[in-house]
């Protein structure tokens, strides 16, 4: 049974041993500033039913009041994907705003905890001010929070009541707009119909972030999107807020709002004080709502949210010793109903104040959020020194753990402990154990603190052993963008019997953000979490295994003992080490297929109508042997110009050489169709971003165009991403054509077996290439390919049905697969590689027109995450190279482009784009 902590108990634990007495509060002075109201600019009051203000209008108001108020500064934290300025309002007293740099510096020193004594940290905590981050609008159709920002900001700029003056005096509050592009899109779309009863936010035609939509809250540790990078820079490199409050909707049915505490499981890497403080703050938020007569807040079991995954705005904070608050509230500018849910009318620990069913107006939700905003500011104010000092304590303790022997206890270690206990006598029980399963305490040192299971003190990344150095640089840049210190060796060095060249990198664990370092390098070990013994798995809120070191195939050495050598820290994001043209003369250039950036070079050459070939056999140049697939670029003045201009910035080497002997594959410019759907496919959106990064031209293709046929006249390759056929039973609502502008009507419709599949088959049979990723692999059997689904069994009626989740369940994990690197689809891959698997399709090849390119050869392919029943994968095929008529169908079962993170498997998609058309009959 899981025991709920009371607010009092949490507060006592939070304060124990690290409490600093608060300094005498100095409230802000009353203001006489004349501040323009939001409605004077918006033309309506924010929060009114049937009204949304767009980002342009809100920005106009923010700029106006920034010039009127002594309590606010307006700062751009960078540009968005569509080129808008991403603004953040900084609100505090005039005195605090005049010393912003000073308070930012204190916040930085306490967060990094480097070189401070406890006494110095206490003095800084006493002098400093809490910096509180409250963002809004990340998911733009979740409209409550971005519309709340103008109201709460206006109240803070104009209020002269005692609480507001105290909050302004004690706190520095950051109000960033998390998704300006989406706010503009959704508000304008909603306000489009003249009839207010026809206004909706759920029928927008495109993703509410240019590329990734809702997945903008899955990008935090990768920092691919510009808005993510802007917020990460503000949070972990400039402002270092102690509290990150990430506002969302919608609340669980029959309630008003979800507020932490969260359900299990916590991530095992971050400091326990993070969750302790987060829960203490969360109870204060619940308490404020109840005290103000605002019922309906739920926690823990009331919603599926957890703290395991590192990729969202508030969870990334945990790995940086910052409190992370998520709220999910109901609400819409179109009035709604709170339905009657019987189970939510009986008070329980996780829903102590039920809310009555009722009609619900937009302003009611905004009033709740304003109360929660104030609760967060109030808690920071009342616990200022403790909050600041504890940020230092967590950083200090992480630095200490990173500089000495330390252990991260995960489920595998507990399993090892229980197994070891079986060989020892059970401790004598005279009744004092009260049914607890007690084992010999000596095992704590011998098993849980096994020297071989220590957490690394550093990670060494050798410059001369990377499969794809530019991708390794992207990995390091992801760390740097989130405030991790990366050192670069300015001279060769030797450690642990290995020699590392100058230019190698060191990421030390003795830094405050050690939890993030461990979480990006080390595999995740998710608990086996089931509803009950023998029951179904408890679905995690997001993926369970995601460490970037595996997804990006970074070669590194784990250092378990002291690593005394210090090297210069990298000051900012890195460029790849410059590539070179090696040698002179020759009839052309040879370039390795192993680097993703080689595809950029290929695309530039093909765009300039220069020939490019793949060598089918290995080739030796400049003393090294390149695997099959190396590029052969015949020399010409234009080819030489492109090669010489490109290799340096791309970080790849081109070897001047005579024309190699042996067979080649001539690749050519491709007409790529990327399938999308009305409202936008996130997986296709990520692919658009990847294509643009690697300079692949593409055209979006919608179901209506697929159904018309004649696809071979317009496209050479059609790519179906994992969610375009629908996923997990989700149905996307589409509007009537007459209700939307003409430019969006061609996007309507869906992919069907009756109309679409025959046209896809005709395209392939005419010589086209079809590529499916992830769940879209179901097209394989539907198109008549000789493949079947091996993860099935016969039910009582003799029908083949998928294995139930009680027998097979892999909810987003990293697995190890084998590759046939002589198949052009796998050129550039290592023979054994990590792939990202999200309950993905696998195949049994049943005929000569298909062959396996990647497969599972082990009963334990799990590398990171959670894989229940993984032995069922042994012998199954992950990637299929199939022929259909004159063309090809490539089934990429794993999520080879998932959220633009597994850079090491991007080339499987890239290869398919070139290889299929190059070898079509």
List the helices and strands and how they pair.
Blueprint lengths: L6 H9 L22 H5 L12 H12 L5 E8 L5 E7 L2 H5 L1 H13 L5 H10 L3 E5 L8 H15 L3 H9 L1 E5 L3 H12 L34 H13 L4 E6 L8 E2 L13 H20 L5 E2 L14 H6 L4 E7 L6 E3 L19 E3 L1 H21 L1 H19 L8 H11 L21 H6 L9 E4 L7 H13 L5 E2 L4 E3 L2 E3 L4 E4 L5 H8 L26 H4 L5 E3 L21 E2 L5 E4 L5 H11 L4 E4 L3 E3 L2 E3 L4 E4 L2 H14 L3 E4 L6 E4 L4 E4 L6 H12 L5 E3 L1 H6 L8 E4 L35 H10 L3 E5 L5 H4 L4 E2 L3 E3 L5 E3 L8 E9 L12 E7 L5 E2 L4 E6 L6 E3 L12 E8 L2 E6 L13 H13 L3
Parallel strand pairs: 3-4, 3-5, 5-8, 6-7, 17-23, 25-26, 25-27, 27-28, 28-38
Antiparallel strand pairs: 1-2, 2-4, 6-8, 9-10, 11-15, 11-16, 12-15, 13-14, 18-22, 18-23, 19-22, 19-24, 20-21, 29-34, 30-31, 32-33, 32-35, 32-36, 35-37, 37-38
Strand composition percent: 15-25%
Radius of gyration: 29 Å
Rounded mean pLDDT score: 95
The secondary-structure class comes to alpha+beta
Helix fraction bin: 25-40%
Shape descriptor reads globular
Alpha carbon gap, first and last residue: 64 Å
Low-pLDDT windows of residues: 1-23
What is the number of E strands?
A: 38
Largest beta-sheet characterization: 10 strands, mixed
**Distinct helical segment count:** 26
Task: Fill in the keyword field for this structure.
8-stranded mixed β-sheet, 10-stranded mixed β-sheet, alpha+beta, 26 helices, 921 residues, globular
Textual characterization of the structure:
With 921 residues, the protein is of the alpha+beta class. Helix content is 31%, strand content 17%. Strands 25, 26, 27, 28, 32, 33, 35, 36, 37 and 38 form a ten-stranded mixed beta sheet that branches. Strands 1-2-4-3-5-8-6-7 form an eight-stranded mixed beta sheet. Helix 5 (100-112) packs across helix 14 and helix 8 (162-170) packs across helix 13. The longest helix is centred in the middle third of the chain and has 21 residues, at 362-382. The model is unreliable at 1-23 (pLDDT under 50).
């Amino acid at each position: 049974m899981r025991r709920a902590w009371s607010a009092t108990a949490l507060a006592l634990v939070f304060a124990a041993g690290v409490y600093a007495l608060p300094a005498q509060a100095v409230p802000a002075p009353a203001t006489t500033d004349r501040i323009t109201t939001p409605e004077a600019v918006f033309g309506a009051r924010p929060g009114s039913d049937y009204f949304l203000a767009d980002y342009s209008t809100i920005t106009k108001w923010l700029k106006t009041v920034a010039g009127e108020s002594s309590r606010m500064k307006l700062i751009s934290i960078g540009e968005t994907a569509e080129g808008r300025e991403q603004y953040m309002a900084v609100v505090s007293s005039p005195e605090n705003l005049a010393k912003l740099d000073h308070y930012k510096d204190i916040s930085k020193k306490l967060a990094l905890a480097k070189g401070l004594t406890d006494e110095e940290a206490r003095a800084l905590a006493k002098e400093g001010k809490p910096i509180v981050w409250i963002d809004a609008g990340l998911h733009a159709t979740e409209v409550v929070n971005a519309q709340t920002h103008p109201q709460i900001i206006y109240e803070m700029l104009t209020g002269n009541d005692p609480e507001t003056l105290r909050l302004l005096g004690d706190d520095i509050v950051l109000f960033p707009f998390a998704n300006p592009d989406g706010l503009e899109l959704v508000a304008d779309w909603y306000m489009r119909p003249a009839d207010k009863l026809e206004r909706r936010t759920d029928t927008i035609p495109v993703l509410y972030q240019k590329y990734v939509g809702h997945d903008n809250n899955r990008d935090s540790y990768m920092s691919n999107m510009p808005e993510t990078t802007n917020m990460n820079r503000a949070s972990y490199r400039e402002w270092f807020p102690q509290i990150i409050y990430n506002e969302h909707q919608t609340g669980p049915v029959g309630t008003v709002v979800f507020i932490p505490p969260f359900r299990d499981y916590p991530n095992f890497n971050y400091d326990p004080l993070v969750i302790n403080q987060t829960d203490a703050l969360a109870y204060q938020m619940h308490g404020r709502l109840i005290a103000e007569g605002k019922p309906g807040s739920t926690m823990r079991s009331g919603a599926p949210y957890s703290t395991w995954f590192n990729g969202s705005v508030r969870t990334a904070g945990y790995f940086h010793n910052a409190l992370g608050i998520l709220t999910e509230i109901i609400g819409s500018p179109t009035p709604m109903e709170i339905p009657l849910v019987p189970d939510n009318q009986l008070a329980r620990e996780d829903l102590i104040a039920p809310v009555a069913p009722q009609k619900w107006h937009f302003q009611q939700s905004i009033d709740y959020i304003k109360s929660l905003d104030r609760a967060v500011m109030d808690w920071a104010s009342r616990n200022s020194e403790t909050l600041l000092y504890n940020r230092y304590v967590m950083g200090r303790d992480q630095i200490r753990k990173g500089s000495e022997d330390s252990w991260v206890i995960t489920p595998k270690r507990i399993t090892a402990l229980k197994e070891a206990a079986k060989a020892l006598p059970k401790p004598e029980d005279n009744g004092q154990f009260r049914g607890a399963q007690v084992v010999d305490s000596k095992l704590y040192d011998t098993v849980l603190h096994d020297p071989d299971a220590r957490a690394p003190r550093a990670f060494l990344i050798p410059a001369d052993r990377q499969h794809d150095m530019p991708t390794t640089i992207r990995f390091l840049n992801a760390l740097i963008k989130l405030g991790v210190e990366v050192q670069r060796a300015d001279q060769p060095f030797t450690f642990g019997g290995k020699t590392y060249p100058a230019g190698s990198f060191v990421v030390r664990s003795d830094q405050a953000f050690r939890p993030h370092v461990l979480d990006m390098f080390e595999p995740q070990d998710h608990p086996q979490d089931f509803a009950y013994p023998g029951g179904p798995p408890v679905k995690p809120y997001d993926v369970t295994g995601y460490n970037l070191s595996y997804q990006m195939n970074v070669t590194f050495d784990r250092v378990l003992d002291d690593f005394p050598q210090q090297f210069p820290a990298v000051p900012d994001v890195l460029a790849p080490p410059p590539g070179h043209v090696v040698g002179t003369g020759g009839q052309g250039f040879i370039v390795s297929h192993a680097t993703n950036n080689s595809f950029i070079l290929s695309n530039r050459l093909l765009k300039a109508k220069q020939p490019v070939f793949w060598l089918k056999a290995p080739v030796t140049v400049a003393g090294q042997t390149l695997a099959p697939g190396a590029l052969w670029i015949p020399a010409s003045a234009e080819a030489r110009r492109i090669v010489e201009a490109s290799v340096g910035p791309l970080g790849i080497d081109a070897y001047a050489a005579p024309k190699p002997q042996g067979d080649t594959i001539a690749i050519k410019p491709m007409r790529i169709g990327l399938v999308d759907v009305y409202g936008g496919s996130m997986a296709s959106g990520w692919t658009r971003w990847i294509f643009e990064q690697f300079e692949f031209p593409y055209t979006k293709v919608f179901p209506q165009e697929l159904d018309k046929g004649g696809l071979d006249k317009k496209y050479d390759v059609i790519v179906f991403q994992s969610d375009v056929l629908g996923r997990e039973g989700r149905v996307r609502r589409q509007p009537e054509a007459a209700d939307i502008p003409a430019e969006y009507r061609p996007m309507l419709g869906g992919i069907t077996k009756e109309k679409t599949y025959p046209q896809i088959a005709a395209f392939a049979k005419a010589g086209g290439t079809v590529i499916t990723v992830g769940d879209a692999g179901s097209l394989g059997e539907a198109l008549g390919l000789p493949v079947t689904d091996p993860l099935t069994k016969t039910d009582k009626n003799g029908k083949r049905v998928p294995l139930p989740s009680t027998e097979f369940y892999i909810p987003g994990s990293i697995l190890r697969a084998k590759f046939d690197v002589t198949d052009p689809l796998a050129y550039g891959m290592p023979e054994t590689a990590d792939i990202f698997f999200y309950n993905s399709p696998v195949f049994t090849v049943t005929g000569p027109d298909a062959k396996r390119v990647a497969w599972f050869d082990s009963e334990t392919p799990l590398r990171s995450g959670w894989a229940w029943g993984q032995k069922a994968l042994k012998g199954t095929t992950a990637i299929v190279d199939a022929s259909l008529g004159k063309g090809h169908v490539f089934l990429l079962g794993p999520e080879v482009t998932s959220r633009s993170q597994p850079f090491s498997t991007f080339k499987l998609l890239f290869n398919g784009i070139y290889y299929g058309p190059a070898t079509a009959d």
